[in-house]
Amino acid sequence: MRVLLDTHILLWWLAADPALPRRAAEVISDADTTVVVSAATAWEIAIKKAAGQLEAPDDLLDALEANDFESIAITTRHALAAGQLPRHHSDPFDRMLIAQSRIEGLTLVSIDRRLSDYNVELLSLE
User: Fold this and answer.
1) What are phi and psi of 115, to 5 degrees?
2) Which of 3, 65, 109, 115 has its CA 20 to 30 Å from the CA of residue 95?
Protein backbone atom coordinates (compact mmCIF):
# COMPACT_ATOMS: atom_id res chain seq x y z
CA MET A 1 0.00 0.00 0.00
CA ARG A 2 1.17 3.54 -0.76
CA VAL A 3 -0.23 6.24 1.51
CA LEU A 4 -0.06 10.03 1.63
CA LEU A 5 -0.27 11.51 5.12
CA ASP A 6 -2.35 14.55 5.93
CA THR A 7 -0.53 17.04 8.15
CA HIS A 8 -2.28 16.16 11.39
CA ILE A 9 -1.61 12.44 10.85
CA LEU A 10 2.10 13.11 10.27
CA LEU A 11 2.39 15.30 13.37
CA TRP A 12 0.51 12.80 15.54
CA TRP A 13 2.77 9.99 14.29
CA LEU A 14 5.98 11.96 14.97
CA ALA A 15 4.78 12.95 18.46
CA ALA A 16 3.44 9.47 19.28
CA ASP A 17 0.20 11.28 20.04
CA PRO A 18 -2.67 9.07 21.25
CA ALA A 19 -4.99 11.05 18.94
CA LEU A 20 -3.53 9.08 16.02
CA PRO A 21 -6.17 6.53 15.00
CA ARG A 22 -5.06 2.96 15.61
CA ARG A 23 -5.71 1.96 11.98
CA ALA A 24 -3.47 4.79 10.76
CA ALA A 25 -0.68 3.71 13.12
CA GLU A 26 -0.99 0.11 11.91
CA VAL A 27 -0.73 1.09 8.25
CA ILE A 28 2.13 3.55 8.78
CA SER A 29 4.15 1.04 10.80
CA ASP A 30 3.57 -1.82 8.34
CA ALA A 31 6.85 -2.65 6.56
CA ASP A 32 4.92 -3.21 3.32
CA THR A 33 3.52 0.33 3.35
CA THR A 34 5.23 3.13 1.46
CA VAL A 35 4.55 6.32 3.40
CA VAL A 36 4.65 9.55 1.42
CA VAL A 37 4.71 13.12 2.74
CA SER A 38 3.96 16.04 0.44
CA ALA A 39 6.01 19.20 0.16
CA ALA A 40 2.64 20.88 0.77
CA THR A 41 2.58 19.33 4.24
CA ALA A 42 6.07 20.60 5.03
CA TRP A 43 5.06 24.03 3.73
CA GLU A 44 1.90 24.05 5.87
CA ILE A 45 3.87 23.03 8.96
CA ALA A 46 6.51 25.70 8.35
CA ILE A 47 3.92 28.45 7.88
CA LYS A 48 1.83 27.50 10.91
CA LYS A 49 4.88 26.91 13.08
CA ALA A 50 6.29 30.34 12.20
CA ALA A 51 2.92 31.90 13.04
CA GLY A 52 2.91 30.13 16.42
CA GLN A 53 -0.17 28.09 15.48
CA LEU A 54 1.35 24.66 16.03
CA GLU A 55 4.27 22.79 17.49
CA ALA A 56 6.33 20.62 15.18
CA PRO A 57 9.83 19.20 15.07
CA ASP A 58 12.57 21.63 14.12
CA ASP A 59 14.24 18.80 12.21
CA LEU A 60 11.33 17.71 10.01
CA LEU A 61 13.57 16.46 7.21
CA ASP A 62 15.54 14.32 9.66
CA ALA A 63 12.29 13.00 11.16
CA LEU A 64 10.99 12.01 7.73
CA GLU A 65 14.27 10.28 6.91
CA ALA A 66 14.40 8.49 10.28
CA ASN A 67 10.93 7.07 9.58
CA ASP A 68 11.81 6.09 6.00
CA PHE A 69 9.05 8.35 4.68
CA GLU A 70 9.27 9.44 1.06
CA SER A 71 8.76 13.05 -0.01
CA ILE A 72 6.75 14.15 -3.00
CA ALA A 73 7.25 17.49 -4.70
CA ILE A 74 4.48 19.74 -5.94
CA THR A 75 4.42 19.65 -9.73
CA THR A 76 2.66 21.90 -12.19
CA ARG A 77 0.30 19.01 -12.93
CA HIS A 78 -0.56 18.75 -9.22
CA ALA A 79 -1.11 22.52 -8.97
CA LEU A 80 -3.43 22.63 -11.96
CA ALA A 81 -5.42 19.65 -10.69
CA ALA A 82 -5.76 21.19 -7.22
CA GLY A 83 -7.02 24.42 -8.76
CA GLN A 84 -9.64 22.58 -10.80
CA LEU A 85 -11.16 20.69 -7.87
CA PRO A 86 -14.72 21.54 -6.87
CA ARG A 87 -14.92 23.89 -3.87
CA HIS A 88 -16.04 21.27 -1.35
CA HIS A 89 -12.96 22.15 0.68
CA SER A 90 -11.26 25.55 0.73
CA ASP A 91 -7.97 24.62 2.45
CA PRO A 92 -5.29 24.89 -0.28
CA PHE A 93 -3.00 22.38 1.44
CA ASP A 94 -5.73 19.74 1.62
CA ARG A 95 -6.70 20.45 -1.97
CA MET A 96 -3.09 19.80 -2.99
CA LEU A 97 -3.05 16.51 -1.08
CA ILE A 98 -6.25 15.47 -2.84
CA ALA A 99 -4.75 16.28 -6.24
CA GLN A 100 -1.50 14.49 -5.46
CA SER A 101 -3.21 11.40 -4.11
CA ARG A 102 -5.41 11.16 -7.19
CA ILE A 103 -2.61 11.73 -9.71
CA GLU A 104 -0.02 9.57 -7.96
CA GLY A 105 -2.40 6.75 -7.01
CA LEU A 106 -1.88 7.21 -3.26
CA THR A 107 -4.32 6.44 -0.47
CA LEU A 108 -4.86 9.57 1.60
CA VAL A 109 -4.71 9.18 5.38
CA SER A 110 -6.78 11.84 7.16
CA ILE A 111 -9.54 12.23 9.71
CA ASP A 112 -10.99 15.14 7.73
CA ARG A 113 -14.40 13.85 6.61
CA ARG A 114 -14.78 16.68 4.07
CA LEU A 115 -12.20 14.94 1.89
CA SER A 116 -14.69 12.17 1.18
CA ASP A 117 -16.59 14.66 -1.00
CA TYR A 118 -13.84 14.14 -3.59
CA ASN A 119 -13.10 11.15 -5.76
CA VAL A 120 -10.06 10.19 -3.72
CA GLU A 121 -8.97 6.94 -2.09
CA LEU A 122 -9.16 7.46 1.68
CA LEU A 123 -7.90 5.07 4.33
CA SER A 124 -10.82 3.99 6.46
CA LEU A 125 -9.95 4.89 10.04
CA GLU A 126 -13.09 3.52 11.67
Assistant:
1) -70, -20
2) 65
Residue 7: which residues within 8 A CB-CB, separation 6 or more?
41, 44, 45, 93
Q: How far apart are CA 83 and CA 67, in angstroms?
A: 31
Task: Give the Cα separation of 97 and 115 in Å (integer).
Answer: 10
How big is the chain, counted in residues? 126
Domains and CATH numbers, the chain: 2-117 (3.40.50.1010)
Query: Is this model's pTM higher than 0.85 or not?
Result: yes
CA nearest neighbour of 54 among 79, 17, 22, 27: 17
Over the chain (126 residues), the average pLDDT of each successive run of 10 is 97 97 98 98 96 92 97 98 90 96 97 90 88
